[in-house]
Amino acid sequence: MTTSHSPARVIEVTGLHKRYGDKLAVDGVDLHVDAGEIVAVLGPNGAGKTTTVEILEGYRHRDSGRVHVLGEDPQTAGLAWRARLGIVLQSVNDMAEATVEELVRHFAQLYPDPRDVDDVIEAVGLVEKRRTRAQNLSGGQRRRLDVALGIVGRPELLFLDEPTTGFDPEARHAFWDLVLTLRAEGTTILLTTHYLEEAEHLADRVLVVNDGHVIAQGPPASLGGDQAHRTSVRWTEHGAEHAVATDTPTRVVAELATRFASLGLSEVPGLRVQRPSLEEIYLGLLGGAAAAAADPELMEVDR
Amino acid sequence: MSTTAVTTTSTTREDRPGRAARPTALPGVLRLGLLRTRYELRAFFRDRMTLIFVFIYPVLMLVIFATAFGTGPGSFGELDLTFPQYFLPGMIATGVMLSSFQNVATSIAVERDEGALKRLYGTPLPPASYFLGKVGQVLVACVLQVALLLVVAAVAFGVPLPTDAGRWATFAWVFVLGAASGAVCGVAFSSVLRSGRGASAVVTPVVLVLQFISGVFFQFDQLPGWMQSLASVFPLKWMAQGMRSVFLPEEALVLEPSGSWQHGVTAAVLAAYLVVGLVVGVRTFRWLRHDDH
After folding, report:
1. Cα(A282)–Cα(A200) distance, integer angstroms
2. Are both A97 and A202 inside the same structural domain?
3. Are strands A240-246 and A231-237 parallel, antiparallel or unpaired?
4. How far, CA to CA in Å, does A282 sit from each of A164, A209, B237?
5. pLDDT for position B155
6. pLDDT surpassing 50 at residue B192
7. Across the A/B interface, how many CB contacts are shorter than 8 Å?
8. Poorest-confidence range of A46-55, B193-202, B273-282?
9. Which residues on A lie below 8 Å from B123 (Cβ)?
10. Is residue A299 part of a domain?
11. According to the model, what pLDDT value does residue A4 have?
12. Are residues A120 and A240 in the same domain?
């Protein structure tokens, strides 16, 4: 294992446990995030995502395990450490009386080396709304204000907890561009999201959390292993749908074409060739034992 | 959303020798306390509910009472004293209590419930600066409120204001001790308020009952003895009494059940609330909601 004091390792967590009463919210999470990475944490509600992230942010205390964030233990780290973080919490409606510009300026003043207030307001697309009170913003605008307050301190490490909830598709794409720009500047980003498309678009690595531990991790393109990324070829024969998961879809299709041609059909009935989306792979991973037990040659991708 | 803006910032940043050269000195505690004061004041005066029920309320009550009971002489027998003059000290004490205790208790409860405290906790804002902001806001709000009360009392109801320095010195320490103890008790009390929306529903009856038993709406010496004793446990009675010693003529001592202004006891009671409120407030203050950790 790489030492946690390596400068490239921004977050390092081993054996993290957290219990609330009888419920084991985090049950042995291991994870790491390196400098400049965007890592997405996926998982159903109640999987332990938010608890884990809030332990990293210093909001909650762990029961056991080792946690290093920017070289310090969040439980004991001070204000200088907080100045290097940017935290965008889940959607809230606080500080409603102040305007966009007042809030961004106020938060900029809390940090030693803030970004330019006007630049930040422009980057989140709220120039037109800069004199609007937070309570009068739409859900998506309010969320963009949250993001502005999270990045105005020029964080080295940015936590984004479901940042694009309530965004329309256009705003979401603009937000993704913003996140990629932040990364290009050297910001390390830990993101939790419900949108698989978001993780696929942004993340260098994806962590899938379920029942309090990480059940899979890797780049979006290879999450779940080669097996999970096999292409499914489907067709109809004798009135029934057939499906084959394969690494060589071209050969399968060619074989099917030959076989159906010999039956006098120039088209394979109901032919579909599909690469599994991250969402399908994710759902397959959450299926857990059931999915693993299923016949690997016959994968149901009925979506 | 345009991404060019942040890129622009990054170009500026390339001029810097790198991360090691980033300014790392955090902004000073006092400076941030002042910034917080400004922020808090803006929020205070923009919230219509606090503006009416905290800031304007005592002035409104003074106007109603003075108008209803009349401003003529002879209201207190032989004493050269009018109703507006008798009620002014109580309204000042009430204003200080509302702008300190009620205002701090409910605003912290709302900020905690809505997640503002959690957001602030995630920044390098020193907790001391957050509380300095509350103190500064309370101080400015109280000063403006008392000034407004004095102007209305003097101009509209002809209440004579004291001219000797000794009385203003008494005013100063009663005011400062009252506001300070109210503010720290507000911090302490905020910890028992679970929800932001329900906060004023819990705090308002408390302060309203205190107003009734502490001689704010009624002449204190005409209240039943048990009520006077009960009121003596709480700071509002002492603040009102201290303010009466400032704004009432010396002969009005006959209206005091104890026959004295009791400055020593007043200072001791308010100081005790200040210390107890501070200790309890520091020990119970939470940045996160009850269900959030």
Report:
1. 11
2. yes
3. antiparallel
4. 19, 10, 65
5. 94
6. yes
7. 133
8. B193-202
9. 82-83, 87, 107, 110-111, 153
10. no
11. 46
12. no
Same-domain pairing of A272 and A235: yes
User: Which of B3, B19, B47 lies at the smallest CB-CB distance from A123?
Assistant: B3
Q: Which of A201, A221, A241 is the last residue of a domain?
A: A221
Residues in chain A predicted with pLDDT less than 50, given as ranges, are 1-4, 6, 289-303
Q: Using alpha carbons, select from A79, A106, A85 the residue that is nearest to residue A95.
A: A106
Residues A279 and A156 in one domain: no
With 0-12 CB in 10 A as exposed, 13-18 as middle and 19+ as buried, what is A89?
A: buried
Q: Is residue A191 part of a domain?
A: yes
Measured between beta carbons, the chain A residues lying within 8 angstroms of B2 are 122-123, 125, 174
Determine the structural domain holding residue A171 and report its residue range: 9-221
Question: Is residue A231 assigned to a domain?
Answer: yes
* Token pair of A135 as six digits: 């309570």
**CB of B138 within 8 A of CB of B45?**
no
- Give the helix/strand (H/E) hosting A64: strand A64-69
Sheet containing strand A64-69, edge to edge, reads A23-34, A9-20, A64-69
Question: Of A165, A186, A221, which one is at a domain's C-terminal end?
Answer: A221
Q: Are residues A28 and A79 in the same domain?
A: yes
CA-to-CA separations, B185 to A18, B139, B179, B270, in angstroms, rounded:
34, 15, 10, 11
Give yes or no for A169 touching B (CB within 8 A): no
Answer for the pair A27, A11: CB distance below 8 angstroms, yes or no. no
Residues A27, A80 within the same domain: yes
Output B49 or B292, whichever has higher pLDDT.
B49
CA distances (Å), origin B54, targets B91, B138, B210: 12, 11, 15
Q: What is the CATH number of the domain that holds A163?
A: 3.40.50.300
The residues, any chain, with a CB within 8 Å of residue A73's CB and separated by 6 or more, are A67
- Residue A202 shares a structural domain with residue A251: no
Same-domain check for residues A249 and A189:
no
Gap from B280 CA to chain A (nearest CA, Å): 22
Q: Is residue A4 part of a domain?
A: no
How many structural domains are present in chain A? 2
> How far apart, in whole angstroms, are the C-alpha atoms of residue A202 and residue A178?
11
**pTM for this model (two decimals):** 0.84
Residue pair B192/B201 in contact (Cβ under 8 Å)? The answer is no
Question: How far is Cα A185 from Cα A36, in angstroms, rounded to an integer?
Answer: 9
